[in-house]
Amino acid sequence: MQEKDFTRIITAMRATGACSLRAEYHGSGDSMDSFTMSFADGQGNDLSLPKEVASDIQNQLYDLLVGDHEGWENNEGGYGEISLDLDDGVPTMDWDHYDYVVDTSLTSHSFGDD
Predict the structure, then answer these.
(1) Ranges for the DUF6878 domain (predicted)?
(2) CA distances from residue 78 to 63, 87, 99, 112 in whole angstroms, order as listed
């Protein structure tokens, strides 16, 4: 994942005065259960973006998620957190994605097989 992948998101954030973005997503059973985002200005105050801008950013993040973790919501699913900061005009991004995994442990006993 590179800065160029976030160009439209960064441009939209700068145009609205947003300096930070936090997103969290969860999904399993072949569906996305939640995808939440919050934005803040340079002083850390919550910021509400126009609905169409926030929706466009969410769609772009989702496209990046599917591009990097296709099928993340299938079966046991997964979740993740995305942080994008524009401190001092220099974008920094942290993205942690976790896949839920079912683990199996076998204990076997038998007798009479002499």
Answers:
(1) 51-109
(2) 16, 29, 4, 44
CB 39 within 8 A of CB 46: yes
Separation of first and last alpha carbons in the chain: 58
Each domain of the chain, given as residue ranges in start order, spans: 3-98
Instruction: For residue 11, give both structure tokens.
Output: 């441009």
Give the model confidence (pLDDT) of 83-92 as tens digits.
999 988 789 9
Question: Would you state the structure tokens that stand for residue 60, as one six-digit string?
Answer: 């772009």
Structure-block tokens of residue 57: 């950013």
Name the residue among 11, 4, 6 with its Cα closest to residue 23.
Answer: 6
- 3-98 carries CATH number 2.60.40: no
Beta strands in 1-114 (DSSP E): 20-28, 31-40, 46-47, 78-85, 92-99
CA-to-CA distance for 72 and 99, rounded, in angstroms? 7
CB 84 within 8 A of CB 6: yes
* Element (DSSP H or E) covering residue 47: strand 46-47
Tens digits of per-residue pLDDT, 45-55? 999 999 999 99
